[in-house]
Write a structure and sequence with these properties.
Structural class: alpha+beta
Helix content: 25-40%
Largest sheet: 5 strands, antiparallel
Length: 169
């Protein structure tokens, strides 16, 4: 065996530097790609949470108002309030936003409080405005804004305002 064959088994310093450089470029590209994937996933989760909670809250309020026998509060037509009280089967239920920015309903007979929105969203700007009065034509306009609790890219949060009119049957 001659000397040339003996030294040909390893890598040269220049080859190692080139390999490390290529590996560094690949790692930087993969890190950027991973960061983008996480941002898109966070965007998607925030948007989905806000939309899902918004639809659920509208459906829940619509069902409860249709099932009610009376809308107690708001009492004065045209005056917005931050709470709504309805009577279902002789039990009063009060809807309002608590100190944690969650929409809650309180059952007056048991004192139980249920939070209606998920952990991922917060409720603000909740207003109830009575439109119609008298018997089965009682109607209430409800408006609220849902905001995701997750921070999206550039510290922007997903926000959506919901508004509808609810009536008794």
């Amino acid at each position: 065996m001659n000397k040339k064959q003996k030294f040909q088994k390893g890598f040269t310093l220049i080859e190692l530097v080139i390999y490390i450089g290529i590996l560094s470029i690949l790692l930087a590209a993969m890190t950027t790609l991973f960061s983008s994937i996480v941002d898109v996933q966070l965007d998607s989760t925030s948007t989905s949470s806000v939309n899902q909670d918004g639809r659920y809250l509208l459906s829940k309020l619509l069902y409860d108002v249709k099932s009610s026998s009376a809308i107690v509060t708001p009492a004065t037509p045209g005056t917005p309030t931050s709470t709504m009280q309805i009577t279902i089967n002789s039990i009063n239920y009060t809807y309002s936003v608590n100190s944690n920015n969650n929409l809650q309903v309180v059952n007056a007979s048991t004192g139980n409080t249920d939070v209606l929105n998920s952990y991922d969203t917060s409720v603000s700007g909740l207003t109830f405005t009575r439109i119609g009065t008298g018997g089965s034509s009682d109607t209430v306009r409800v408006s609220y804004t849902l905001t995701s609790r997750n921070t999206e890219r550039n510290n922007v949060k997903e926000t959506k305002t919901f508004q509808t009119t609810l009536g008794m049957q």
